[in-house]
Amino acid sequence: MRRQPVQQRGAATVSAILDACAGLLNEYDYDDITTARIVEVAGVPIGSFYQYFPDKRSVVHALALRGMETCLREIEEMFAADRIAGTWREAMRQVIGVYLRMLTEIPGFGRVRFSDLLDSHRLDSSVDQYELMAERLAELFVSRFGAHGDAPVMLTFRIAVQTADALFKLAERVDEDDRAYVVGTANELLTGMLGTVLEPQDPVTGPVGSQSP
Questions:
Q1: CA 34, CA 138: separation in Å to the nearest integer?
Q2: Which residues bind DNA (predicted)?
């Protein structure tokens, strides 16, 4: 974003631009969206657009950040208000539930989450949204459930975040009958990954929760 809005009118203008872009992304491919179309849908002058954004790429980047912050804010509120489950496994499922719900409730979120609109359109190479998300989630989970074992905490959470994002994108593209299987597979993989960090370790067999009864 070129500049931060400091007045209510400016904030409303930016919000209108982001909302317009989100709606267009739900209907059109990135390459088919133009700056002129964004301002037309937003109902703002082209000059106002360029006060805050140099191009459509920066709008999509700001939209990705807004979606990520909205998702993280709800997750953080769950932890702060003690509405999170008592085990890390159930807490992980709650976090996944928030993410999946926002895919359907927030316009454009499913298209730009974590600054990865399309593989051919990396939005900002200087900002790694996966890393930002991983850092925040790692802090929340480790503070609540502790860290166990020798697995690198940040790297493990980063792998988990990117894996989840890829599989949930796949879940959107497969037939509805196959969607539950993809989401279930994601849950299993994430449980295995995060278990190396969050599950108390047995010195011989590894994560306690992964042992057979």
A1: 37
A2: 34-53
Q: How far apart are CA 35 and CA 48, in angstroms?
A: 12
The span from the CA of 28 to the CA of 14, in Å, is 21
Average pLDDT of adjacent 10-residue blocks, the chain of 213 residues: 62 92 87 94 94 90 83 94 95 93 75 48 54 92 92 95 88 89 94 94 58 43
Q: Domains for the chain: give ranges and CATH numbers.
A: 1-54 (1.10.10.60), 63-210 (1.10.357.10)
- CA 109/CA 64 separation, integer angstroms: 7
Cα Rg of the chain (Å, integer): 19
pTM of the full predicted structure?
A: 0.76
Name the residue type at position 171.
Answer: A
Q: Are 64 and 112 contacting, i.e. CB atoms less than 8 angstroms apart? A: yes
Length of the chain, in residues: 213
Give the separation between CA 114 and CA 153, rounded to whole angstroms: 20
Q: What are phi and psi of 122, to 5 degrees?
A: -65, 130
